[in-house]
Protein: DNA-binding protein
Organism: Hymenobacter jeollabukensis
Amino acid sequence: MPIEYSLVQRGLPGTTTGPKKWYASVRSRGVTTERGMADKISRSTSLSSSDVKAALESLLQEIPRELAEGQIVQLGDLGSFRVTLQSDGTDTESAFTAAQIRKIKVNFVPSALFEQLLGQAVLRRVEAAVPAAERKAAKKG
């Protein structure tokens, strides 16, 4: 299956003036759940779907614990997870406190192999979805 994308026109962030350009935007085809992934993995391994689901659930519990301990979680050819922070700046080092930290974020960095495999995906341009407001207006008219 190809990755579908449509084109959207956007201006520069934070401004309403200036030229707008066209950019690609991925159109999602749906969501694959944890159960769906477990079923797919079980078909290509000797593990049952429930065994795979249990392993995935354990992984999902352990990753945040490791990250909270300050670890980078490296998952082989999948990639790595690491914590980053968003904070407000202060004029001096001594003025900085943990209160300046606004958000703890998790970054995923795909492995080179993961990026290579995804880079082989087929891309297909599709028509842009009609925004809900336009669909409602069209029905009324």
Summary: The two ends are 37 Å apart (CA to CA). The longest strand covers residues 101-110. Residues 1-27+126-141 form one domain.
